[in-house]
Write a structure and sequence with these properties.
four-stranded parallel beta sheet, Rossmann fold, 9 strands, 256 residues
């Protein structure tokens, strides 16, 4: 991997920074159905950052997703102490946590599947709205009881800053301002704004209806933020998802 002049990694492995926040992920590859390639690219970056920071005691805060806990079969809201599976973004998350053993103050912020605000241009809320426009219905999988957490962009960003400043090595944190919204409620609000029906999508039609989102849309992902709030003092202050549906351009922007 090549780094431009002035980037983190130099030929002599000198690190001219106070810490690193890694947010990038190839969502276009993920949406095209090539999630393994997106995860692999992310891992390559994380390994390079870990090598550069090893032994410095400096912080590395990496982004992951709360959906990684949805496949763990917890049967309860996922906590900051829970770990995901051995593959995908959860494996990358585990690799970041392991950097604590190499002298890096490494931590992970798990971002909810829906991050929203006037800054959101390509997030999953807009994707769900676009699907509803295309199909003429606001769909939800099965009975729609599965829950997705959500977070305002600025509240999520604040948590990354808190983690950079204060998170102990080898820890995970949750950036969910809303810890779990039923998918049928999200679909219902989308339907109201678009003047269409909210309908259940049978299991055998989920792939055709949701496309690349089919692998995620039926996951139940209630997410606790109790430890994050107590330990780091994180307190979301910005509007929730449905308030942003009312005041942002989710339903009025050209192309939406």
């Amino acid at each position: 991997m090549q780094f431009p002049e002035g980037a983190l990694v130099y030929p002599d492995k000198r690190v001219d920074c106070d810490g690193v926040i890694h947010l990038a992920f190839d969502h276009e590859r993920m949406r095209s159905g090539n999630l393994p390639a997106a995860v692999g690219g992310d891992r390559a970056v994380l390994d390079s950052l870990g090598d550069a920071l090893a032994g410095t005691g400096k912080p590395l805060v990496a982004a992951s997703g709360t959906l990684g806990l949805a496949t763990a079969g917890l049967g309860r809201p996922g906590t900051e102490h829970d770990t995901g599976g051995p593959s995908g973004r959860s494996a990358n998350e585990n690799a970041v946590i392991a950097l604590a053993e190499r002298g890096v103050r490494a931590s992970v912020v798990r971002v909810p599947p829906i991050t929203h605000s006037e800054l959101d241009r390509t997030g999953l809320a807009r994707t769900l709205i676009a699907i509803a426009r295309r199909t003429g219905v606001a769909g939800y999988p099965g009975d729609g009881a599965n829950r997705w957490p959500a977070g305002h962009t600025r509240d999520v960003a604040h948590l990354f800053c808190l983690a950079l400043e204060n998170a102990p090595a080898g820890t995970c944190w949750h950036a969910a301002g809303q810890e779990g919204i039923a998918m049928r409620e999200i679909a219902g609000r989308i339907a109201e704004h678009l003047g269409i029906e909210a309908v259940s999508i049978p299991p055998d039609q989920v792939q055709a209806h949701f496309g690349p989102l089919a692998m995620f849309v039926a996951l139940d992902n209630p997410t606790s933020t109790q430890l994050t709030r107590q330990a780091l003092g994180w307190a979301p202050t910005h509007p929730d998802l449905f308030a942003d549906f009312e005041t942002c351009d989710y339903f009025t922007a050209p192309g939406n």
